[in-house]
């Protein structure tokens, strides 16, 4: 029984009601808000790419030193309602890590979007981008809840593959019927 907001009007020939329900759940998992007739392989790939970027951001925590630096920045006070900011040398001194190691890890954390950098004179101050972190963690949490629903409904593997198959099949049907 399809409890989603996605409605199949045309181009879904050859699919059972149960299969369409699975496709609708998979589409919701990816955050598709368009009508199925507007789905394209490119749109699905954009959604998959966004998810990979989010997972890539979390991969930055795989290095123990990088995680320690991130936690240092997270837990070292706030100023004016914002996360505390520190220079490379302040972090290196307080954590007793070399400047080059701290600098390397800060650049990686910045590259994946977890840090903001503010320049004041010759110094650069690093702080956690809490809004971005909340966005990433919130999105991942929502994906995990939806993934649990996919598993309960018997939708294995990657939902994008199911949707790409649906879109490709319907594009072929539409083009052949012209």
TrEMBL record:
A UniProt-annotated Pfam family: HTH_20
Keyword Transcription: yes
Domain HTH arsR-type positions: 46-148
Domain of life: Bacteria
Keywords attached to this entry: DNA-binding, Transcription, Transcription regulation
Gene Ontology molecular function: DNA binding; DNA-binding transcription factor activity
InterPro entries: ArsR-like_HTH (IPR011991), HTH_ArsR_DNA-bd_dom (IPR001845), HTH_MetalResp_TranReg (IPR051081), WH-like_DNA-bd_sf (IPR036388), WH_DNA-bd_sf (IPR036390)
PROSITE patterns the UniProt entry points to: HTH_ARSR_2
Name listed for the protein in its UniProt record: Metalloregulator ArsR/SmtB family transcription factor
């Amino acid at each position: 029984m399809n409890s989603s907001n996605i409605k199949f009007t045309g181009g879904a020939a050859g699919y059972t009601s149960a299969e369409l329900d699975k496709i609708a759940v998979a589409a919701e998992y990816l955050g598709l808000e368009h009508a199925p007739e507007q789905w394209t392989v490119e749109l699905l790939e954009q959604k998959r790419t966004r998810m990979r970027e989010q997972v890539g951001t979390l991969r930055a925590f795989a290095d123990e030193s990088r995680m320690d630096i991130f936690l240092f920045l997270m837990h070292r006070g706030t100023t004016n309602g914002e996360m505390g900011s520190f220079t490379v040398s302040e972090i290196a001194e307080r954590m007793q890590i070399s400047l080059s190691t701290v600098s390397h890890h800060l650049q990686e954390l910045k590259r994946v979007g977890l840090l903001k950098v503010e320049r004041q004179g010759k110094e650069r101050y690093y702080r956690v981008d809490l809004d971005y972190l909340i966005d990433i963690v919130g999105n991942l949490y929502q994906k995990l809840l939806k993934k649990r629903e996919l598993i309960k409904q018997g939708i294995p593997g990657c939902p994008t593959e199911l949707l790409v198959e649906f879109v490709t099949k319907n594009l072929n049907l539409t083009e052949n019927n012209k």
